[in-house]
Fold:
Amino acid sequence: MTAPSGAAARGVERRPVARRRRRMGAAPFLVPLALIGLVSFIAPLFPLKGPNEQDLTAILLPPIGFGGDWAHPLGTDQLGRDMLARMIHGGRLSFQIAIAGVVCAGLIGATAGIAAGYLRGWVDVVVTRLIDAQLALPFLLLAIAIIATRGQSLPVLIGVLAIAGWAQYARVLRADSLALRERPFVTGLRATGMSSPRIILFHVLPNVAPTLVVIATLEVGTMIIGEGALSFLGLGVTAPSVSWGLMLAEGRNYLQEAWWLVVFPGVAIGVVGLLANLGGDALRSRYDPRKAIRSTS
Amino acid sequence: MIHVLSKLGSAAVTFVIAVSLAVVLSSVGGDPVANLLGPLAPKEQVEAERAALGLDRPLPVQVISTLGDVARGDLGTSLRYEQPCWDIIKSRFPQSLKLMVFALLLGILVGVPLGVIAALRENTIVDRLVMTIALTGQSFPLYWLSMMAVLLFSLKLGWLPAGRADGWSHIVLPGVVLSLLPIGRIARLTRASMSRVLDEDYILAARARGLSATRTVGIHALRNAALPVVTIIGLQAGGLLSGAVTVEVVFAWPGLGSLAVDAVSFRDFKLVQAIVIFGAFIFVTINFAVDVLYGILDPRIRLRSA
Structure:
């Protein structure tokens, strides 16, 4: 490839030294992520204006530093609504939808994946085929198809996200349970006559829990981005509710004269997505260094 | 040959299940006809329309009849345009394909070198920087990056056109934005794969024999590291098709994505369903091709399944 030969030469020779890995923990990513989530959740406690409170005498005010004042630190939108209030309330709904999606997807995916990996046989065949088929359907197009026949609502939106996410859990947890099944302590438990549901619940599940946490973390980012995309296309959250994706859809028409309507919610989604991805990766390498090296995603 | 046939069978099964899944998921509990005709439509009209569209039949019958139609190359008739969905898809797909091929090629051209550089400098600041940039491209929503690109390069700087699809200059902005997805994925995977290969004994042997570093990395390491990367290129097809939807909408690009979004605003669920099935077909076909290619590139796989 086009790697400059000088750099390549040094790289190859220096490898043994550079191989000593020093990895950062997950805390630098997950703490800010949790803080953003927390601020969103306690949004009603802040002395903020209502996210839908209009003030037509103060429309499209710029944020502080660009000619705005402290009355509206992040400026106002085309109806004079306070951007700071909308950002925090929007984040609240975005997080709620994402977490509901992560939990639903996790329940379906973990059940299917663990059952397939532990029970093998026809369950495994069916689940593996379903995972392959699910991954073959482009997420956004499938979501559009489901929403086209069912109309928009919050449960449909969460359901769509869960459908998009379950296969990830199922695929990874299946592989984990498959390996776990052959471990001596599990064969031992089986030999003592313990029932499969009991082994799965009390012995397999706790052992795959770290993997579950890693995928759930990564999926929070995916779900926030997915909700944003659907709301942006006008297929997710609808006014008067507020979510970051919906704010982007509304701000799009004012791209040229009021950049702050589009920049703030977009950066918020991106930062949350990035924190979730970085945090998930860091968690993964902490729980399983072997997988970190092969971090394929 | 056996390898190819077994992969073909597997691809066909996946496609059949994917189509069934699409039909079931978009039918269960939903009422497309009520959505289509609105809340004021008389009950008899709703019933008649439902019968005309075959939606009054039991779900398994609907699934099987859809599968039969798809096998005959019939993707149904669009409710809005009143012509076969296939004809409409056929007229729009080349534009999406152009965008996706552009993005994928750029993804390979940029992603592979980035991954190689990161692997050679593993755990240095260069590595961290490259990987963070790769992840950033994957974390920020594509439609937002599209809007930012329009704002910066079209509206403020006026360098490149945004919107429509005439001429090559129009593909640059949407193509580059869409390529961020494959660049990130390919760079991350190349790094992981390359890092593993560089630890192999044969790399050490090649160095010991006095082969230049360029030759070692460029030929011996990269060739072996390329295998998993080929797989991810196949899997990219699905992600690109989804990513293209929002990018197409922002850039008013006349491809399948914007067609699907238009169709849903006209409640043309037949056309949307046809696009989903077509998308699944593309995905399965590409992955079948990748599987076969993989067998050619790596004899170990071909021989194992034979």
About this structure: Chain A is about 70% helix and 0% strand.
